[in-house]
């Protein structure tokens, strides 16, 4: 272009001077100058360093800076950041400052680990976009709303695979226990905990699967129980995290910090996935800010209130970080009755096939304890000043749960003002004799008030509660009475519930089993009503079986509410331990007899009838015992078979 312009100018000059020779000389000199400028520009471009990653479209540039870690060693690292050829000096200074702040954060983490003051760290990435709440008088069209939703979805998709939060905490992984002599002249061999200390890092991604890694910090020295520290793995991991956060995934070791399943991410110039964070140690809380114009890392005003300054109990006593800590359970596995019943062995571990039984005992005791605590409270109107606790386990079997409940309640409540008495009822005489013998072998302490008798559910004359069916005034009772009936087959559960209702029992706990009574009625109803609303569901036998269980227990729950109980139905243990894991709990409440309460009871009776008619149920054992009608054609309340007046 310069050559052409010069040629035009010279041509005009030549026309004025009529000198062809002068035109030729000036054109030649202009061409030489232009060629020389081109050579200078090429040399200047050649002097610029070649890009580090040939395939990266943003021409990453690497900035190297040294890091000194607590005087222990000196290392250099390289953080590669994206930069375009036209990047200005301000952006370059921002990247360099951010890199320096990252170095400070990593150095502080390593230093706190070496000085045993470290507790935890947190790093946070960009937050997920959210739709802003609009005011009630907003008149935005649905088209605008769709545009906003689409924009949010695009923003979310842009974050896929990027860091969301990164959490770092200390964990102690215990090795097998070793027996060795401790110092101090004690010749006795003792079990000691040996293992390794790790920094467990949990990485949460946007729209990707979370991962967790354990970076080894050190092992316990068996001679003096000191920790031999080595933080090199932690340093490599942190550097890999920040390199990935810059979008420089090619420079990080994927074996140290793996990417999400969505692979590498790309960032704009000077942008990184980590926005902020904090480091908590014994000295305080350090705040990290990497988002915005000014990156910073400084001690926050927020103080670490849990630890003394300059000390970290977690690192000085790493065994408390162990994943193998003793579980907080109601019953100790070292309880003697567990061994007598064959649940645990001499090492207090569950025997083969008994782990599920032990778990059931622990969970069941927890449930019963909470119910008894509520009823035993002296502020409760149900048991005004009650002193004793009486428990009957109907159909107790070998007594695993009976022993467990009695042991726990005795430890918690047995004193001069309260006596815990428990009775198990079982039909098999030989089994009754065996478990009574175990109770006597355990001594005359807390198991003195535990006994087992032979009898059937609902037909026991010499039970703790007697045979007289009485509707006691719960406010004047001198004891908290509990009835347990677990896995009582079919209508035996109804007999146990009626036994408790008729005597005004305070707490009822039952796990129904084998609900067969309603199945023939439901089968008949489905076959005779092909246009039934639920016909397409109930035509399958497996669904009719499940429906039978649900309908039976739902009717029992409504009937217990009609009888004056607060009722809950829930799963008390996982299905992998027992298929019959649905439990019904009921606690007696004071009935006022108000009009509002009467209306509520009538509503419950209406619900019961509607449920029964939907599935074609015309009779149910507990409803018959209580004298409650479950069909709309008959509103007449007959006197209950057990002698209790209609409720």
Q: Which SSEs are present, and which pair or pack?
A:
Elements: H1 2-17, H2 20-47, E1 61-69, E2 73-81, H3 89-114, E3 118-124, H4 142-158, E4 163-174, E5 178-181, E6 189-192, E7 195-205, E8 211-220, E9 227-229, H5 232-245, E10 276-281, E11 284-289, E12 296-299, H6 313-316, H7 336-340, H8 355-376, E13 388-394, H9 400-413, E14 420-426, H10 429-441, E15 450-454, E16 479-489, H11 492-502, E17 507-513, H12 519-528, H13 535-538, H14 541-562, E18 565-571, E19 582-588, H15 595-614, H16 621-626
Give, in spatial order, the strands making up the sheet with the most strands. 9-8-7-4-3-10-11-12
Helix content: 25-40%
Q: What is the average per-residue confidence, as pLDDT, rounded to a whole number?
A: 77
Largest sheet: 8 strands, antiparallel
> Beta-strand percentage?
15-25%
* Rg of Cα set: 39 Å
Note the total helix count.
Answer: 16
Secondary structure: number of strands: 19
Output the structural class. Answer: alpha+beta
Shape: extended
Which regions contain 5 or more consecutive residues with pLDDT less than 50?
A: 43-86, 471-475, 635-647
Distance between the termini: 107 Å
Keywords:
about 650 residues, alpha+beta, eight-stranded antiparallel β-sheet, seven-stranded mixed β-sheet, about 20% strand
Describe what this molecule looks like in 3D.
With 647 residues, the chain is an alpha+beta fold. The chain is 36% helix and 21% strand. The chain contains 16 helices and 19 strands. It has helices spanning 2-17, 20-47, 89-114, 142-158, 232-245, 313-316, 336-340, 355-376, 400-413, 429-441, 492-502, 519-528, 535-538, 541-562, 595-614, 621-626; strands at 61-69, 73-81, 118-124, 163-174, 178-181, 189-192, 195-205, 211-220, 227-229, 276-281, 284-289, 296-299, 388-394, 420-426, 450-454, 479-489, 507-513, 565-571, 582-588. An 8-stranded antiparallel sheet has the order 9-8-7-4-3-10-11-12. The protein has a 7-stranded mixed sheet with strand order 15-14-13-16-17-19-18, sandwiched between helices. Strand 8 (211-220) and strand 9 (227-229) form a beta hairpin. It starts with a helix and ends in a 21-residue tail after the last helix. The relative contact order is 0.06. Residues 43-86, 471-475 and 635-647 have low confidence and may be disordered.
